[in-house]
Structures are given as C-alpha cells and as structure tokens.
Write a structure and sequence with these properties.
binds 2-oxoglutaric acid; about 230 residues; Pro_4_hyd_alph_FE2OG_OXY; 8-stranded antiparallel β-sheet; Jelly Rolls; oxidoreductase; 4-stranded antiparallel β-sheet; alpha+beta; Oxoglu/Fe-dep_dioxygenase_dom; single chain; binds fe (ii) ion
Length: about 230
C-alpha cells in the first residue's frame, strides 16, 4: 500500500530547507557556524559599501520607532528605529534579487525588507523571529502567510563599538561588519520552530548601527496592489 506524498511547499519558501541549504553551501566564501543546534550561515562582504551607504540613506529618510509583535510589557525590549524599504526602488530591488540568488529563497515568500537603525544604547533584546503559536499576534500575523521560515540579515556598517548579535543558545557572538550577511533557519531540520535561534541585537556603545532584515514565510507574501480600482 502506498502512502500519499506529503504536501511539499515551494522550495523557495525555505520549508523544507533542502533547496536553500544546497544553494547556500555552493556559495563561495560562505561560512557555516559549527553547531548542531541551529543552521546559521555568514558571508562577509556580501553587499558592496556603496550599496550599503545607499540603503542607509533610505533608512535615515524614513525611520520610525520600532515595534514588536508579541508585546511583553518591557518598553525597552526593542529600542531601535525601523523603516520598511520599498522594493519599487531600484536599489532595494537589486538587494532583494541578490538575496534570492544567494540563498535560493524566493522573494515572493519574503516580507518587505526592513531597515533598523540603532543609536548608542539602543538594542533588540533576546528574541526569536518566529511568532509564538497560540498567541493573538500569531493569529493576526500568520493567518495568511504562515509563520517565518528563514531570516536573512545584512549589516550595513560597523558601529564604533557594540551592536553585535548574540546567539545565546550556542554562545556565539557575531560582530557587525559592513556588508556581512547572516542567514539562519528558524526551523529545526524536522521543520518545527527552533528555540535555539534566540538572538540579541546588543547595545551599540559608540556610533550608529544599521542593518536590513528580510524574513521569509511559509506562503507567498501578498503583493501591494498597484492597479487602480476598476
Ligand atoms: O540587530 C541585530 O543584531 C539583530 C536584529 C534582529 O534580530 C531582528 O531585527 O530581528
Ligand atoms: Fe531577530
């Protein structure tokens, strides 16, 4: 008796991860953080300094206070500023294309790229990027597009001091460096959410830190309507 095949998501969603793992492993100069607890890759110099500077300009022009999905009562939990970046802008469009080509993740499954700006003393305390199933925020944010699968993050500059990203469960701290990309799977190999992805955007001690993040989902992200109403 044959069992029906399991529903296979589009490989570009990053769930299952095989296609993304194959694509990332084939990239020159990619580094994988050696741990069995999570899948975390780094690539130094992924984005050129000119593009990083152009994206920083856009973040500075449109930043607003950051929010968090699962409000936890700690008003100092995420003190940075945020900016949704417009994929109709050719600079952002190119960054999105580079991320997809590098990771094998299909940009159709990604949320709009988000910029973050951290001034001295600002941070994003330890959190996971996926939504906690069962909560109100999970219902609101995951109803249509499912939960987050992969996170791709790029440091746009190197602040004077501080601003590292600490993955507590594996005792690994990654230093910001202009153009360095991080990509991690928010899931375990069996597809379940991985709490070992807990990470902390640590306080900037001098200068300003800029990053962009693109989070991918189980299902395609709705595209903004551009056509006029009939
Ligand atoms: O700023 C960092 O190093 C981490 C940012 C982060 O975790 C996020 O935006 O989800
Ligand atoms: Fe995060």
């Amino acid at each position: 008796m044959s069992t029906p095949p399991a529903r296979v998501a589009d490989p570009g969603s990053g769930l299952p991860a095989d296609h993304v793992l194959e694509t990332l492993r084939a990239q020159p100069a990619i580094q994988r953080v050696p741990t069995p607890k999570l899948t975390l890759f780094a690539r130094r110099g992924f984005l050129d300094p000119e593009t990083c500077a152009a994206v920083i300009d856009r973040i500075d022009a449109r930043r607003r206070p950051s929010t968090i999905a699962d409000a936890n009562g700690d008003t100092a939990f995420r003190t940075s500023e945020t900016c949704d970046l417009d994929s109709a802008d050719p600079v952002i469009d190119r960054v999105e294309a580079l991320i997809s080509a590098f990771t094998g993740l299909d940009r159709a499954y990604g949320e709009p790229v988000q910029g973050q700006r951290y001034a001295v003393g600002q941070e994003f305390k330890a959190h996971t990027d996926y939504f906690e199933p069962g909560g109100e925020d999970y219902k609101i944010h995951c109803r249509h597009t499912g939960n987050r699968t992969w996170t791709v993050m790029i440091y746009l500059n190197q602040p004077g001091a501080g601003g590292a990203t600490r993955f507590k469960a594996i005792d690994k701290t990654i230093q910001p460096e202009t153009g360095k990309l991080l990509a991690w799977n928010n899931r375990r190999p069996d597809g379940l959410l991985n709490p070992a992805t807990l990470h902390h955007g640590m306080k900037v001690r001098s200068g300003t830190k800029y990053i962009i993040t693109k989070w991918f989902r189980e299902r395609p992200w709705p595209r903004p309507r551009t056509e006029p109403d009939a």
